[in-house]
């Protein structure tokens, strides 16, 4: 007790505060990676069932008819995006002011899955109508669950980069889209990427907020 009062940090479950932050960062990254893998499997199943996405027979290697590399890539992207969003919030001094609860995050995930379901299941008159509808839904998802300028900007930038990467993969014959209408891919794909970035960003923010609350409680107890 005397050592604690005099300012000497007592021994705890971590060697230091840096180790604690590093461990928390790894745990958040692992959770985000798992979420990304799960969403990739579920959403790719929708696309393959509708014959929107076609993989060559020699790369189909899972029960969800997905190329083996798709889930790890999506998981890695989810981890990076989920860690980047709260970091950018702190850097820009733009707090996420909307109601932050896990139930709200789950609703965001449900809307994102619904947007993907619409792109795969609903028959539209043409691709332009489909693209405009998904664009409106994606922006609506951002407005409902985010509304931050940093969130919108990061969503647009990452969606653009992801679309370019997808074009390169399709161009090199890794996989293909049926009835492509925009440089080897479907024109609505950037909208899906944008909605996915906003969704994963909200999950990352919620995980970071939980860590912040725990650290605050520990500091008050000390």
From TrEMBL:
Presence of keyword Transmembrane helix: yes
The entry's keywords: Cholesterol metabolism, Endoplasmic reticulum, Lipid metabolism, Lipid-binding, Membrane, Steroid metabolism, Sterol metabolism, Transmembrane, Transmembrane helix
GO MF term set: lipid binding
GO biological process: cellular response to insulin stimulus; cholesterol biosynthetic process; SREBP signaling pathway; SREBP-SCAP complex retention in endoplasmic reticulum
Annotated TM spans: 25-46, 66-85, 128-145, 152-171, 183-203
Compartments where found: Endoplasmic reticulum membrane
Source domain of life: Eukaryota
One Pfam entry name: INSIG
Topological category with respect to the lipid bilayer: Multi-pass membrane protein
Cellular component annotations (GO), alphabetically ordered: SREBP-SCAP-Insig complex
Similarity field: Belongs to the INSIG family.
Its biological purpose: Mediates feedback control of cholesterol synthesis.
The protein's name: Insulin-induced gene protein
């Amino acid at each position: 007790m005397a050592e604690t009062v005099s300012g000497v940090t007592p021994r705890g479950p971590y060697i230091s505060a840096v180790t604690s932050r590093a461990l928390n960062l790894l745990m958040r990254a692992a959770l985000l990676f798992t979420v990304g893998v799960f969403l990739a499997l579920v959403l790719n199943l929708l696309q393959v069932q509708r014959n929107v996405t076609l993989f060559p027979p020699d790369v189909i290697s899972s029960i969800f008819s997905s190329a083996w590399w798709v889930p790890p890539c999506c998981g890695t992207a989810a981890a990076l995006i989920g860690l980047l969003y709260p970091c950018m919030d702190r850097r820009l001094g733009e707090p996420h002011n909307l109601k932050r609860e896990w139930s709200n995050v789950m609703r965001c995930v449900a809307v994102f899955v619904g947007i993907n379901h619409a792109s795969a299941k609903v028959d539209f008159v043409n691709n332009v109508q489909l693209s405009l509808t998904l664009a409106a839904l994606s922006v609506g998802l951002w407005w409902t669950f985010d509304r931050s300028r940093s969130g919108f900007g990061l969503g647009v930038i990452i969606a653009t980069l992801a679309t370019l990467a997808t074009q390169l993969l399709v161009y090199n014959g890794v996989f293909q889209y049926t009835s492509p209408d925009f440089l080897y891919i479907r024109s609505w794909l950037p909208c899906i990427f944008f909605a996915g970035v906003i969704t994963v960003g909200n999950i990352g923010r919620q995980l970071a907020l939980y860590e912040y609350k725990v650290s605050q409680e520990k500091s008050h107890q000390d």
